[in-house]
Amino acid sequence: MPSSPIDVLARHLEHVTVTDPPTDLPTLAKLLDTIPDPRSRRGRRYRLGPLLALSLLAVLGGATSLAKIARFIAGYDPDLRARAGLPGTVQPAASTLARLFARLDGDSFDAATCTYLATLADCGPPSTTDIRPPARTALSGLAVDGKTLRGSRTPDGAVHLLAATRHDTQTVIAQQQVKAKSNEIPAFTPLLSHLDLTGVVVTADALHTQHDHAHHVIAAGGHYLFIVKGNQPTLLRRLKALPWREAILNDRTDETGHGRREIRRMKICTARPGLPFPHAAQAVQVKRRRTDHRTGKTTIVTIYAITDLPPGRITHAQLAALIRGHWGIEALHHIRDVTYREDASRIRTGTAPRIMASLRNLAIGLARLIGWTNIAAATDHYRSHPTDGLQLLGLTT
User: Fold this and answer.
1) Is residue 17 helix, strand or coil?
2) In 81-230, where do the E strands start and end?
3) CA-wise closest residue to 47 among 15, 85, 74, 98
4) Is this model's pTM higher than 0.90 or not?
5) How confident is the model over 192-204, as pLDDT tens digits?
């Protein structure tokens, strides 16, 4: 990864070869080559790393299925395939990719790629959306949410993935597959178990507003900001009973976009003694008024949240930004569905659905980290200029 992501993006747009020195990280192709290879040694015609790297290059270019990935690879110039480490005469079939992806270890693949993205995100320049209160230790947001791969439905149900995504860069730094006939709750702690949560605020929707989850986040050195709904009826009732009418307005935002106007008003109450949630320090009420310009319809929704962050730890505006930032993971899911047609995918065998989802996460994360704000535009660019994609993968300079 070159030292200046914004410069890389500018040069990609100008189709100029990047000459910045790479970081000390191994190239992504080398990293992918360390993933356990499920194939028999006998009869292998190409290494795993280059094949996965070229598959990622195809996804960067907008490939939405195994058949399209195979066509992308076959359509690449033989010299480009050779630079990626794949013999120029080899053109893997979609069925070959399907058998390979179905047998790959999803945990190993996610561990390698998510760690790589997390390291790149930490090495990048500070984001303008970073939460950096003056004279205090900086805090960053980490959203935890799940997504069902609807097209992967089997007799055991569809594949469901739980991911942890950074607020500032929209990069997935951890991902777990939820076990069949289970739900996201037991997967929360394993998902975060290997992450250093120092200086991190973990945000999650109401499903994860669980005592055990709060204890785990605090024990790992982090903070939590959880939405409260009806699955915690006693806590919700206590939050609603707080003196919100007397509380002052702490933050107000007014935004227009996507055909609607949205006004958010946030109030904060210091948690009363005996509030039935561990380490609770503050309760938050957000009233969201949304007007659809096309229909003229206005809806008002009240959201409650709980956090261990003590008063004064961050500013009111930063707390409001954390609440809004959590929904960035929904934007990531939207991109996977709309740009990559994930819900329309019919890949169902073995771990192939998870591997494809992870390749999409990786492609989106790499594009975000070098400055792309429109992923559809990024896919158009890398489809036409695959050599620029090789630069992102560290396969050329």
Assistant:
1) coil
2) 140-154, 157-166, 172-177, 200-204, 223-228
3) 85
4) no
5) 999 999 999 999 9
Tokens of 330: 């929904």
Identify the CA nearest to 59 among candidates 17, 28, 23, 26: 28
Q: Decide if 165 contacts 364 (C-beta within 8 A).
A: no
Cα pseudo-dihedral 197, 203, 205, 206, rounded to 10: 70
CB 127 within 8 A of CB 168: yes
The dihedral through the CA atoms of 97, 103, 104, 110 has a sign that is positive
**3-state class (DSSP) for residue 218:** helix
The pLDDT tens digits of the residues spanning 342-395 come to 998 989 889 999 999 999 999 999 999 988 999 999 999 999 999 888 888 875
259 Cα distance to chain centroid: 25
Residue 58, classed as helix, strand or coil, is helix
Contact yes or no for 309/315 (Cβ under 8 A): no
The pair of three-digit structure tokens given for residue 79, joined into one six-digit string: 């010299």
**Percent helix, strand and coil across the chain, each to the nearest 5:** 40, 20, 40
Task: Look up tokens 């009111």; give the residue.
Answer: 316
CB 175 within 8 A of CB 108: no
